[in-house]
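Action item from last week, closing it out:
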Amino acid sequence: MFKKIFISLLIILVLSGGALAADIPKITIGWTPPDITGVFKTATDFFEASARQATENGIPVEIITRSPASHIEFASQIAIIEDFIQRKVDVIAISPIEVEVVKPALIKAIEAGIPVVVVNLLEPIEGVDVDCYIGFDNTIAGTVSAYAVIDYFGGPGILGEGEKIDISESTYLDLEFWQNLYTPEVIAGLQDLTLNGAIVEGIAGGFFSVARLRGFHSVIDQFPKIKFVTTLPADWNREKGIKVTEDILSANPQGTLDFIWAASNEMGLGAMLTSERMNRPEVKIFTNDGTPESVERIREGRLIAETWHGFPEWGWYGTKYAVMLALGLKDMVPQFFDIRPRIEWQGNADKFYPNPELEPIDWNAIKEAYQK
């Protein structure tokens, strides 16, 4: 009896190349977004969805999510990273509250042998050996938003009353699209475009806010008759966005303001709600990010357009690449995964929510690569 069992096991070993398939260890990913708003809840939902799918396919994954209560509690995110290090999580995934603030803590994590996945930016963090970036160039995101403003108020494109461009369902309204459309000749023909706008930025002087403002102005400043009545910070917060917009609209009565660009959709939704409450439909709201809530407001026509930042991609691929790093498959993980910021508008809203377009993850291929 025992001899037969031994022979059967021996045959299995021979057929499998001399060793039984390695067990997949449980993988714990510490995920820390910078706050608890809808923006980062969306990313968290997709981290967890990807983890569930991995677990269902034989790779047990746990996501531990911890975040500061607000986007200006810098010390809290540092403490969270340090706690993840003490817990010896397998991978840390982070959307930095501010890049310079978290650098020392990320360096500690790397020194402790914990791989790091950074989402929300592509710009490399100097002095930190990050394993994988999933995100977008924040300057490009602001640039794309500015083209949407010009389009709506008379330039060629897909918004507003200007020349309409035929596009297919698969067209990415990304930087390449807009730059090909807005040639020097087109820009020269729009030099009389006259508008008054206001900007609601994030944390004044912070990395993300500065980058998005830089991109936005790189386009808008080519049109000398577009003026800004003010630029005010709202710390990426909806309630502060409401208060800032109240101040802007009170200082600029009906007929004197054409648009507000808010550099995130929490602030943008605050601007939208305030402009509606104060009966200012002539002030058009543009923003950045992309959540189920903001895309629905675009469908309704309450937001004009928004630049997609790819929160589903952060979580979906964030879990995928964190798992691969935890399993020692770093050579198969791209260092940069570009979301390619692009415009959401009424004509393409269904491509983003409720079912964002995400590539399937081949978890079996990941298991096989680990077991080789």
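Closing note: The CA atoms of residues 142 and 212 lie 4 Å apart.
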